[in-house]
Every structure is written in C-alpha cells, then in structure tokens.
C-alpha cells in the first residue's frame, strides 16, 4: 500500500478513470496523495512495474505553483471554437486563429475571448546582421507564433496563453489568478490542471491600464535598435540563445517589458506605443563604431544613421561594454530631433529600467531629484529611486515639452515598413507586451529561456530570497540534475501574498 502512495502517477489514473470522474476534481496539498490512492483502490487496474519504470507524475510546474502561493488545484477539460463540444479525452486544438476557449471544472467555468498578442516589434521589421563592414539583411517575420492574449467574457481581466509544448498560461479575473497547466505527453490529452490563488498585482495592472486607455492622447515612438558585439558575445556565451532567431526572441522580450512602463497612462498622462522597425546586430563591430566610451559609441551610431537617412523617432544602442561605468547616456528632449540617440547597458532577459530611463530623457523628462522637481510631491519613479512608475514631475515635464511643439514625430508615422516577406522567411515568436516578465511567463518558461530546453524551476531558495530563480535539468541524459541559479532578480515573480519581486526586493502591490 505504501508502495502505491509513493509511485502511482496520476497520468496512469486517467487511463482508467473516465474524464467525467476526473474533471473538476479539487486537489489540495493535503489530499493529493489520498486522491491517487483512493483511485488506485477503486479502479484496481495498474501495471505496477510499468509505473515504477516510468517514474512519478508531475503536471509541469506543479511544485512551482505551490511556491507561488497557489493554494487550490482543480482538474479540468478544455474546449475551443474549433472543438466547441469537446469535453472528453480527445486532444484540444488551439492555434493562432483560435478566438474562444472554455475551461470547465465541476465548480466553475472560465469563458475566454482570445486574439494574437500585440508586440512592440513590427511584424516586418528590418533585421540586419553586421560582420565588420559587411551587412546582411535577414528574411525574418515577427509573429506571436505560440501565444494568445485575451479577456474573460465576463468582467475585467487578462488572459495570456501559450499553446506550444502543451496549452498553459495565466488568467486573471474576478479577484483570482488562475494558471492552466498541460499534462505531460503520457497523460490523457484533454485533462488539465487549474491552479487558483487570490489575485496579486496583475489585476491592479489590468484595471489601471483599462481605465487609462480610453482617456489619453495616443502617441507612438518608432525605434531603430543597434546591438554591438559585446551583446552578441554575451548571448552566445551566457545564455541559450545560439541561433539568430533565439537571440532576437531574447532581445525583443526586454522591449516588450519597456512597454510596461509606457502603458502607465494614468501616471504619465499619455499613451505611448513603442514600435521597433529596425534592428542591427553586430556579430563583429564595424570599423566606424567607436567603443572607447559611451559618448563615442553614441556619436558614431548617430552619425552613421544620419548618413543612411534612418529617420526613426529614436535610435537606441544596447551594449555590454566594460569601457564605461555608466548604465546609460542620452540627450534631453532629443526624440524627433538631433539628439534622438541613446545608449544603454542592458542585457539581462526582460531588463528594462535603464532602457525606459533613457527613452524618458529623450522626451525631456528629468531625474526626479532635479531641483525643478522639488515643488512636486508624491511618489518617485523610473527617473528616481523607485525604478518603476512616473512621478508627478515627470508627467508635468513631458506635457510641457509637448505643448512647446516638440514630439511632432510621435503623432505620425515617419518610416513605412513593407509587410511583404519572402516565402522562405523565418518566424520569430514574440511575447505579449506591457507586463513584467514573470507575470506573462512561468518560472519554468524562464528557466527554458535562460538556460535551454530541459531546464525547469526548482524551489531551491527560501521565499525571502525574492526574485532568485533556481533551475534544474530534469530530462534524461548526461545533464540530468544539473542546477543553474539566476541571482539577477526576476521582476514580477510572486514572493508571497500580495507581494512581488522588484529589483531584489519584495514589494507590496
């Protein structure tokens, strides 16, 4: 009997128990083993040796959910608009054209409207790889290959789903956060795990963005990005981003997160949409690119772009150079004008505060500690010591800059991009924009992005080490058991009830 408790995997249970019995079953930490044993005794049809050989069961990320304060677990079936009446064991069909999804448990149902997520990068953005003085344009299209965004049909909320490697994702509505977790490949095809917890910071973000979107003027910043050789080398040596496609996915994630700051219309007073239309990656630095200092690097790219008539609203260089102690440098109020260039040292996946900070300087926002801000009270933000949000002073300076007739380029499209690509183009998957990285990817997703396929999150560090991610390789092979620890902090990771990680600190939401 004890042997059964230890080794009976629930994926085997689903082979002998009908979906109607499994669907909606509520599981808690205290009774999960009891449920398995009870089913074992009632069905009584197990190949014990087979169970032992294949190991114990996990829904991917089950342990992670418990550490992220999910306290209730339900088994569910899923139907989509392409399979509207599917409540049985057959496989659910979800793809980029799916517009509706229903999740059914015995206690509740979630009805979701879906659409492909918007990204900060234009689907047909121009991508150039530079090898010293030789340039090669890549035939790439940016699409949300594996992702869907959406809203619950009833009430406010947010949906972010991935359908590659099994359907999984986040649903926020009616005071609760839900995660849907796909079973491993050996499980019944249409049995999913639904985890629920009291809503954390996500619902507050959704409410603020929805309240603001209908009231503020819409502005756009068209971006050209340059990544120098030091960034290319970092991605090659320190991350799992070996191919160009993987490198682009890694880099674009940071800019999707920059959009998180500029979505805060209720603080800044305006809606600012970022659109990346040009990317130049230096596999080997061109001879014209000066690396002696941030100032020289900035000037060399600006001059080169001017000679090429790259009329983007803002040009941003990203580096991992060790030749400067600065984190960033850019002109004040230079967007749309001669000082439209900036440079940042920002290489961590999803790292955005330095990028946001330098763009803010470009729209004439000073540091919150500037003497002219002394007359304004209230919270600090991106331009101060808080690293997120916008102060009253920041909003006033930006509004004043616009009223002086600046920022005209943000009210119109200045660089058109052809939407056509060759038939053999590569697809680069893009994440949804406007949320902290750990709120639209799970810790398991993060481990795979950071360290590669086969890595999953493990709860190695205690919860007070907020933001630190521990990953282990859990697939068969010579790497099995290898542990990697990211001590850089992962913004948005849940650290307890009503607490999230932000720059190594646990902050209330």
Automatic annotation (TrEMBL):
The active site is at 358. GO terms for molecular function: metal ion binding; metalloendopeptidase activity. One of its GO terms (biological process) is proteolysis. Residues 219-414 form the Peptidase M12B domain. Keywords: Metal-binding, Zinc. The keyword RNA-binding does not apply. Zn(2+) binds at residues 357, 361, 367. InterPro entries: MetalloPept_cat_dom_sf (IPR024079), Peptidase_M12B (IPR001590). Pfam families: Reprolysin. It comes from the Eukaryota. The keyword Ribonucleoprotein does not apply. This is Peptidase M12B domain-containing protein.
